[in-house]
């Protein structure tokens, strides 16, 4: 700031009226302010706020900002917005001298939203008109929806995609345009004279209450006739092992397969495999979708670091022809990585649970196994899990995964509409020593399929398409776990009857279907995930397996995450629910009994740094029962067939120290687990442990706290401190609210990365 001169201290924008997404609009209007009206604030330790080089105040910049904001409102379809401004100066005496602080306030009344009335197409070329009208139902423009320049631009992009998918290679955005209702279009012109605006408003007084606009998409006069020609694919050349060095034509070989000319320097790739993945067809009409599909296929395979497709117009042909040259630049075939890590694993209890762990990892990646871009990954890991007894778990794991870049199936499956279809073969063996409880050896193998449904936005195949669904189907998943129990665990089984069925040898023969998807819009991100697993439906019909170690169940779980980002803070929300239906039987010393709970390595649990943070890991629930909270069983881990959990965080920046971002968060966790439990003394079912909707309020646990986070960009260390606001264990006392809350009576959690 310059001494003795007024400077911009604070600029606020107040939006009047009932406006959808008001906060988002306010943020966008803030971005339209002239730089000379923006102030930068630096926060130290989350408390001290200091202005950084505030700009000198000049009233001219207020008018310039109003023009920018009005243009934004017009582009969003607001009809005749009004913006008024006020400012005042306050004088503050500081030790370094007198400060004249300028406070600026804009009052914004966006006005009515302009809505679409009719959408039409009037192209000069009959073929373009036919293509446009034939796919009009796919347009994002709908009658009565709000008008915006972005929607018009998206529709122009969509039309170009339609035309280019039908041979119009040279057509571009300069050739087509949108013509809007001339009167209304002039009215929303920010450069229009105010008296002229008044005249137009008078002629449109019937539209003022419900302003509408008509849009017609048209074609500019043709300057280059080749832009209206349909192009066909001519010669397609593929270089599967291209080099950035100058090409030496004397050392290469050439092969012709399926009409493609493949030029190669080594037998690094199988040539039929290369030909099978090229989507451009010689002699076919040029189709932009196939152009992008070819690029995406080779990019997603992983064997190539870069894909370059060059389309050349053949000058000596009377027919419009495009020759394609596809250069594929290979990645190094193998990569070996050995690393020491601090991490966590949320897969299951047989891995490292959800506690802070350290481990030594080795990973060998082969990007081009069998010369067909098949990826194989061989990995080994040794790690420990830290808990209340310092070292809680020791684990060793060896895994091998083969990733085939296609569907391998006894029946033919059409994959043209899918992105990155894959077949996955997984082999995994692990050894886990849960100190003082058990030792287990497990083996897992699975065969499954993975694919993505939904077009990439950069493909321009469906403009505006943001949802992409990743599916995984595993028709055969085999898991076997052999458990060696300690005397400590056997004693626990005498006190907790459900433990007799939980920690046993387990056989899983299951199939799994999972779906994950997400959508991002402006500053909001929403993620959804669902998973279904069933075990024993078919193989359980074999009585020996049913009464033996085969677990029979159906397990369903789903997760919802929503994030709202702001410049210096963000909101994060999560909802999770899961349920396991157990219907197997067990032969116990000649007695056939029903199994009531999921195997411990498939069960739900709560607590720890990634769940209900006011409780230690696997120390919450089930329900509001006190079965596990008696003096001799308080340290016993709890598992459930059902789980509900809701989490919310307000995350904000504090400062930066030596390049390390120091952030914080305020959070609240709500949830619990439920299971079928029996009192070991009376052998009666414990009703408080099972889920009942009438008991939901009493059973729900609530924890809240604060967090200190150190962000190193490549990983984040999180220190959480949480209090039990509502503990179901004390549901008989004031429904469990605020029991024994003291400053030092919280729960500390150490985590890596965000909790969700």
Automatic annotation (TrEMBL):
Keywords, alphabetical: Cell outer membrane, Membrane, Signal, Transmembrane
GO cellular component assignments: outer membrane
KW rRNA processing (keyword) present: no
Places the protein is found: Membrane
Domain of life: Bacteria
Domain Bacterial surface antigen (D15) residues, every copy: 547-756
Main location: membrane
Protein name: Bacterial surface antigen (D15) domain-containing protein
Protein source organism: Niastella populi
Native organism taxonomy: Bacteria, Pseudomonadati, Bacteroidota, Chitinophagia, Chitinophagales
């Amino acid at each position: 700031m310059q001494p003795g001169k007024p400077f911009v201290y604070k600029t606020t924008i107040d939006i009047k009226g009932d406006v959808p997404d008001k906060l988002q609009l306010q943020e966008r209007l803030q971005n339209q302010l002239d730089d000379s009206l923006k102030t930068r604030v630096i926060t130290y330790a989350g408390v001290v706020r200091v202005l950084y080089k505030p700009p000198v105040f000049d009233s001219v910049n207020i008018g310039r900002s109003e023009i920018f904001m009005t243009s934004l409102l017009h582009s969003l379809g607001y009809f005749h917005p009004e913006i008024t401004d006020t400012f005042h100066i306050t004088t503050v005496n500081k030790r370094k001298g007198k400060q004249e602080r300028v406070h600026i306030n804009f009052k914004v009344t966006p006005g009515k939203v302009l809505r679409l009335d009719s959408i039409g197409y009037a192209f000069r070329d009959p073929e373009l008109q036919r293509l446009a009208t034939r796919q009009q139902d796919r347009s994002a423009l709908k009658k009565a929806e709000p008008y915006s320049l972005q929607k018009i631009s998206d529709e122009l992009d969509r039309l170009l995609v339609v035309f280019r998918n039908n041979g119009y290679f040279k057509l571009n955005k300069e050739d087509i345009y949108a013509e809007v209702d001339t009167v209304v279009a002039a009215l929303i012109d920010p450069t229009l004279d105010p008296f002229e605006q008044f005249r137009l408003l008078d002629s449109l007084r019937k539209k003022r209450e419900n302003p509408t606009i008509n849009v017609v998409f048209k074609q500019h006069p043709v300057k280059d006739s080749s832009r209206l020609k349909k192009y066909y694919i001519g010669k397609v050349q593929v270089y599967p092992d291209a080099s950035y060095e100058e090409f030496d034509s004397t050392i290469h070989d050439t092969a012709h397969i399926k009409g493609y000319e493949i030029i190669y320097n080594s037998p690094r790739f199988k040539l039929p495999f290369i030909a099978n993945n090229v989507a451009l067809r010689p002699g076919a009409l040029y189709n932009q979708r196939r152009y992008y599909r070819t690029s995406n296929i080779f990019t997603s395979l992983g064997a190539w670091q870069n894909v370059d497709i060059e389309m050349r117009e053949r000058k000596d042909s009377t027919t419009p022809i495009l020759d394609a040259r596809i250069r594929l630049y290979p990645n190094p075939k193998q990569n070996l990585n050995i690393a020491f890590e601090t991490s966590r694993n949320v897969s299951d209890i047989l891995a490292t649970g959800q506690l802070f762990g350290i481990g030594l990892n080795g990973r060998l990646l082969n990007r081009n196994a069998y010369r067909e871009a098949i990826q194989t990954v061989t990995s080994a890991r040794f790690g420990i899990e830290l808990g209340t007894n310092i070292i809680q778990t020791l684990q060793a794991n060896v895994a091998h995964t083969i990733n085939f870049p296609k569907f391998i199936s006894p029946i033919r499956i059409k994959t043209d509409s899918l992105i990155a279809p894959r077949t996955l073969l997984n082999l995994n063996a692990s050894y886990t020593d849960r100190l003082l409880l058990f030792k287990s050896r497990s083996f897992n193998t699975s065969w499954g399929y993975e694919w993505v449904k939904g077009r990439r936005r950069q493909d321009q195949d469906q403009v505006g398409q943001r949802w992409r669904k990743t599916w995984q189907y595993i028709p055969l998943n085999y898991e076997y776990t052999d458990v060696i129990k300690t005397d400590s665990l056997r004693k626990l089984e005498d006190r907790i009857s459900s433990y007799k069925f939980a920690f046993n040898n387990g056989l899983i023969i299951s199939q799994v279907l999972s779906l994950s998807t997400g959508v991002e819009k402006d500053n909001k991100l929403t993620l959804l995930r669902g998973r279904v697993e069933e075990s024993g439906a078919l193989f359980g019909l074999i009585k020996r397996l049913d009464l033996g170690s085969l677990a029979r169940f159906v397990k369903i779980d789903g997760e919802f995450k929503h994030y709202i980002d702001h410049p210096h803070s963000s909101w994060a929300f999560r909802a999770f629910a899961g349920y396991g239906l157990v219907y197997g039987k067990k032969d116990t010393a000649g007695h056939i009994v029903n199994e009531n709970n999921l195997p411990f390595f498939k069960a739900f649990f709560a607590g720890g740094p990634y769940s209900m943070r006011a409780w230690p890991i696997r120390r919450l629930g089930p329900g509001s029962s006190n079965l596990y909270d008696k003096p001799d069983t308080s340290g016993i881990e709890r598992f459930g067939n059902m789980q509900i959990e809701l989490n919310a965080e307000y995350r904000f920046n504090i400062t930066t120290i030596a390049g390390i971002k120091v952030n914080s968060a305020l959070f609240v966790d709500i949830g619990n687990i439920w299971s079928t439990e029996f009192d070991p003394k009376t052998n009666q079912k414990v009703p408080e442990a099972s889920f009942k909707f009438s008991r939901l309020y009493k059973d729900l646990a609530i924890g809240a706290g604060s967090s200190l986070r150190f962000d190193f960009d490549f990983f984040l260390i999180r220190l959480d401190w949480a209090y039990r606001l509502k503990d179901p264990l004390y549901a008989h006392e004031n429904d469990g609210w605020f029991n024994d809350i003291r400053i030092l009576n919280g729960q500390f959690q150490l985590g890596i990365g965000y909790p969700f």
